[in-house]
Amino acid sequence: MIVVLLGPPGAGKGTQGERIAQRLGIPKIATGDVLRAAVRDGTEQGLAAKAFMDRGDLVPDSVILAIMKEVFASPAASKGALLDGVVRTVPQADGLSTMLAELGRKVDKYLLFDVSDDELVKRLGGRTVCDTCQTPYRGLEPGSRCEKCGGTLVRRKDDEPESIRNRLQVYRDQTEPVIKWVKERNMELVEIDAAGDLDDITERAMKALEQ
Questions:
Q1: What are 113's strand-pairing partners?
Q2: Could you tell me if 113 and 6 are in contact, meaning their C-beta atoms sit under 8 angstroms apart?
Q3: Catalytic, out of 19, 109, 123, 127
Q4: Residue 198: its pLDDT value, please?
Q5: 167 belongs to the catalytic site
Q6: For 196, which DSSP code?
Q7: How many CB atoms lie within 10 A of CB 202?
Q8: What is the predicted pLDDT for the residue at 28?
């Protein structure tokens, strides 16, 4: 099963993605993780990505999708994958669909995590992340230690209130059109209420995937 997570920043895609992927027995794939792995392994596409990153430029969709194709052609993704942050724009959604079709595969479901703006600002404003492994935390102050790797927790600049509002606007301008794109193609899109207890949200997502 191939699942794509959609939703605004702070909706819990990273946290829920880990839980859902574990329950399904498939890898969770995030753009940043895939890029770092390709660069680390020195693959052809990884070297191409590194050239852009070293210049401070955004890595083009074509390079990211080529790396994704390598991932989906590997045994690790033979049973599927859960994609977090891979689809942020309509061209990315279109490119992913085309790339998977070349491999004889397709996205089985899009999960859209729905949360109010007020809740998102509250969540992100109280969030810290590990400066080493990027694990997110809520309710722990900067300077605390990461429970996973012992790194130091920091507050990202884009989690400040003004930055949060800007990120939400970027989401509306660039990512919300993907929802319309999916619906127009009669692909399976399920909205998940992403407010409340983490376990409850996970169960809602699993029920949606089992339907």
A1: 192
A2: yes
A3: 127
A4: 92
A5: yes
A6: S
A7: 19
A8: 93
- Tokens 């990505």 locate to 49
**What is residue 147's three-state secondary structure?**
coil
User: Edge-to-edge, what's the strand order for the sheet holding 153-154?
Assistant: 136-138, 127-130, 153-154
CA separation, residue 14 to residues 10, 17, 94, 147 (Å): 9, 5, 22, 17
SS3 state at 176: helix
Phi, psi for 144 (deg, rounded to 5): -70, 165
pTM: 0.79
Per-residue pLDDT of the chain (211 residues; tens, 9 = 90+): 999 999 998 899 988 999 999 999 999 998 888 888 888 888 888 888 888 888 877 788 898 898 889 889 889 899 999 999 889 899 999 999 999 999 999 999 999 999 988 888 777 777 889 999 988 888 888 999 999 999 999 987 777 777 788 888 888 998 999 999 999 999 999 999 999 899 999 999 999 998 7
The CA R_g of the chain, rounded to the nearest whole Å, is 17
Which of these is catalytic: 13, 28, 109, 204? 13
The pair of structure tokens assigned to 187 is: 């692909």
- Asked if 111 and 23 touch (Cβ cutoff 8 Å), the reply is no
The question of whether 127 is a catalytic residue gets the answer yes
Q: Are 11 and 120 in contact (CB under 8 A)?
A: yes
Tokens of 53: 């990153």
88 is catalytic: yes
**How many Cα atoms sit within 13 Å of 211 on the Cβ side?**
13
| Tokens 């207890």 belong to residue | 197
**Placement of tokens 């070349």 in the chain:** 102
Q: Of these residues, 36, 69, 88, 105, which one is catalytic? A: 88
